[in-house]
Write a sequence for this structure.
């Protein structure tokens, strides 16, 4: 029964989203990409259906990595049109493509372990994006790069810890595999930040 919840939760959410599409009013600012499974919903589903504590612990970290990956893709898509610097736009495109690729791999890994991952970013992350999008010119570029820097530092910390302590060998390998790329991304971001000073 619990496994059925994992499989049917995304379908039910999809139907709910479709049913609400006709009732959306013009003042609704929710984007279609904002609807879906949030990190809290994914954690709740995983807590209820995963067989033991070690898999549940690994699932929490995969959920966090998935949500952060979604955030990086979303903010980088916005930065490609909003940034004033051509090199920041190029970086944003690279970040979007790289994180989309990692996100797809993460989702496939999670599905193979019956782990539910989020399909939407958190309210706090949405607010961060909105705050950054209010800026323009060099102020936007700086805010975007600063957010990317902090996000990559946090991701590196998460991936380092999980590459050592994850219980599931496939999950452990996933985190270890992507650490070098995250470090490269951080270096790329810091080089762009130096250009703005």
């Amino acid at each position: 029964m619990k496994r059925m919840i994992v499989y049917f939760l995304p379908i039910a959410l999809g139907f709910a989203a479709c049913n609400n599409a006709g009732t959306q009013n013009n003042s609704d600012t929710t984007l279609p990409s904002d609807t879906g499974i949030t990190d809290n919903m994914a954690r709740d589903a995983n807590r209820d259906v995963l067989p033991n504590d070690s898999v549940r612990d690994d699932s929490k970290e995969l959920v966090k990595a998935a949500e952060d990956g979604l955030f990086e893709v979303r903010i980088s898509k916005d930065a490609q049109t909003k940034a004033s610097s051509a090199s920041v736009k190029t970086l944003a495109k690279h970040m979007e493509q790289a994180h989309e690729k990692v996100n797809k791999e993460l989702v496939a890994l999670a599905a193979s372990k019956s782990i539910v991952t989020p399909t939407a970013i958190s309210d706090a992350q949405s607010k961060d994006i909105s705050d950054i999008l209010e800026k323009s010119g060099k102020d936007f570029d700086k805010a975007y790069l600063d957010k990317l820097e902090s996000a990559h530092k946090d991701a590196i910390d998460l991936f380092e810890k999980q590459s050592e302590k994850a219980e599931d060998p496939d999950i452990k390998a996933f985190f270890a595999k992507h650490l070098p790329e995250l470090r490269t991304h951080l270096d790329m971001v810091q080089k762009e930040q130096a250009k703005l000073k």
About this structure: The two ends are 57 Å apart (CA to CA). The first helix runs from residue 2 to 21. The helical segments are 2-21, 39-49, 53-82, 86-112, 123-133, 137-165, 169-196.
